[in-house]
Amino acid sequence: MSLARTLEEMRCRIDARLEEVLRSEDPREARAVDAMRYSVLSGGKRIRPVLCLAAYEAVGGSGDGALSTAAALELIHAYSLVHDDLPCMDDDDVRRGRPTTHRAYGEGMAVLVGDALLTLAFDLLAEAPPGDQVEPGRRLEVLKTVARAAGLHGMIGGQVADLEAAKDPGDASLIEYVHAHKTGALIAVAVWAGGRLATDDPTVLGTLCRYGRAVGFAFQVVDDLLDSGEDPEGASYVACHGPDAARNRAESLIGEAEDHLTPLGPRGDLLREIARYIFSRIR
Amino acid sequence: MSLARTLEEMRCRIDARLEEVLRSEDPREARAVDAMRYSVLSGGKRIRPVLCLAAYEAVGGSGDGALSTAAALELIHAYSLVHDDLPCMDDDDVRRGRPTTHRAYGEGMAVLVGDALLTLAFDLLAEAPPGDQVEPGRRLEVLKTVARAAGLHGMIGGQVADLEAAKDPGDASLIEYVHAHKTGALIAVAVWAGGRLATDDPTVLGTLCRYGRAVGFAFQVVDDLLDSGEDPEGASYVACHGPDAARNRAESLIGEAEDHLTPLGPRGDLLREIARYIFSRIR
């Protein structure tokens, strides 16, 4: 199977799992479930869950052992967007060409939808597939590490700093901090978590960590470049360093990410492909 | 030790654990940590964590095996209050005699503080104390069950229904649904979780479940009675049935809760005491 086909097939498995968990039989929950599905199943690149599954398979994982973890990472990403779009945060009306969740369902519902998606993510992180090969202790470790990456010392810390950065958009060290936390932490932990569910080997996990950090930072710089035509908000690498420096930085980060994969040999091909795909968005 | 002393000592252990986890060395996180501490360490009855520890000890648990789980339950409660007070939800300016979190720190920060508290709760639920006696698989089961009770099928579902009930405050079946979910689910799971961390015995866990459900409902009716002097919002048992019927209902629920504890004999004394304490608030 070609790498592009493999990626597409992974996205299908992730979307099927998300479809499956975003359901309710209870009519009283219908509107909230509708709003949750609206917020999650509206396209999106599924970068975090794809990285998780690709890392899992690159280091020897098989079957659905990482699928719920991968889906959980997408739910965490989706919740952060719903809350980030709120009027008291970035105040965005449109995302992916459609009204944002609070514009479509009201602000109160958007707050609750974000909370419900985050809570469901941890429900999924605690889930073992039938015939699970992963020991419960390792799942707990992965869950705890994801919680750290998503919490105040990770993604939320980046969002807090982003609120501050809106006041002083030219502070370069603050921008690096925001990027590393707001976007980088969850992308890096996606790679690590996939690996950890398949292996104990600290050398292999170190390799995945370095790759994850480089890819996470590259992803944010690329996103900044794609957004730079629009009204820039908060901390932006492009606003601070200019588009040429940003493009160079993204390219060198992708190169670094690929280099980090060398010890994995051909097993790292899919992760390499994903790194190039991220850069291809600005080519 | 008297039961009152035991309860007070439990509250101290819980507050010490909360103090310990609500900290950061990073100056960039200082304001957010400050807002988190403001939201959690401002008094409060600690009913959920106390019930968790009391249930744990009632069925043979010892040491700190349930302490992080107990603290996590208080963080989940605190996050739900911070988000519930937001202008787009209940729009409350004052809680426990002080400005609500969004009044003190701004709306954007209040959204993020709630998110951070919820995420930290799952970090704590995944935590094993040094020399832990509880198998990791059981911690995963407890974490997953708490996630269910806090999520769309539990607490958040109750909040969603409460948003709807604000439009039709006289619907009695909707009020039962809101109570059972918004408050009851987390209180009931606090009791069950404490028990589950100490025992496998399904009969004992069934006993704790029934007690937890009765106490959870009683707690909400009592809260409604205490609030009924103020401006009633959303679904209220008192607004629907009147204060006399509410008082009778609370009393009979507390009686039921005590009856459910009969199989535990004197081991159930502390849980019995907590049920009476809940009712004593309206005597």
What this model shows, in words?
The structure is a homodimer of 283-residue chains. The first copy, chain A, has 283 residues and is mainly alpha-helical. Chain A has a single domain (3-280), classed as Farnesyl Diphosphate Synthase (Orthogonal Bundle), CATH 1.10.600. Helices cover 70% and strands 1% of the residues of chain A. Chain A has helices at residues 3-21, 30-40, 47-58, 67-84, 101-105, 107-125, 136-150, 155-165, 172-198, 202-227, 237-241, 243-260, 269-280, and strands spanning 94-95, 98-99. In chain A, strands 1-2 form a two-stranded antiparallel ribbon. In chain A, helix 4 (67-84) packs antiparallel against helix 6 (107-125). Chain A is globular. The relative contact order of chain A is 0.12.
Using DSSP, what is the number of strands of chain A?
Answer: 2
Rg over CA atoms of chain A: 18 Å
CATH superfamily membership of chain A: Farnesyl Diphosphate Synthase
Task: Characterize the quaternary organization of these chains.
Answer: homodimer
User: How many H/I helical runs of chain A?
Assistant: 13
Model regions low in confidence, pLDDT < 50 over at least 5 residues of chain A:
none
**What is the general shape of chain A?**
globular
Spatial strand sequence of the major β-sheet of chain A:
1-2
Structural class of chain A: mainly alpha
CATH fold-level label of chain A? Farnesyl Diphosphate Synthase
Strand content of chain A: under 5%
